[in-house]
Specification:
102 residues, mainly alpha, two-stranded antiparallel ribbon, 2 strands, 33% helix
Length: 102
């Protein structure tokens, strides 16, 4: 699910988003920011971190019970509605207004 700016700030004490609003999704972050958020959230919840590494070199431990980003295949599966897919144009609806912030 999308991470709100309020959630992101609570964990990282930062809000890099250009379009401010506590319930807006966090945006304007790099991949490494996202995986560092996942690791911090995992630590906060008492779970094992999924990402190991530093700089631009990270590996994901898929056996860990912490938070992680979806793989490309998991993302594609979710985008079509999973096993409940109704072949919508967008994930969950044929109306962009129903499913997107833009």
């Amino acid at each position: 699910t999308e991470v709100t700016q309020d959630q992101y700030f609570f964990i990282t004490n930062k809000n890099p988003s250009e379009f401010k609003g506590k319930n807006n999704p966090v945006e304007n972050i790099k991949w490494v920011d996202a995986i560092e958020f996942c690791n911090l959230l995992s630590e906060t919840e008492g779970l094992e971190k999924c990402y190991i590494g530093s700089g631009s070199t990270y590996e994901c431990n898929f056996q860990a019970n912490g938070f992680r980003l979806p793989t490309e295949i998991e993302w594609a599966y979710a985008a079509i509605g999973g096993n409940l897919s109704k072949r919508y144009k967008y994930s969950g609806s044929d109306s962009l207004d129903d499913v997107a912030w833009y």
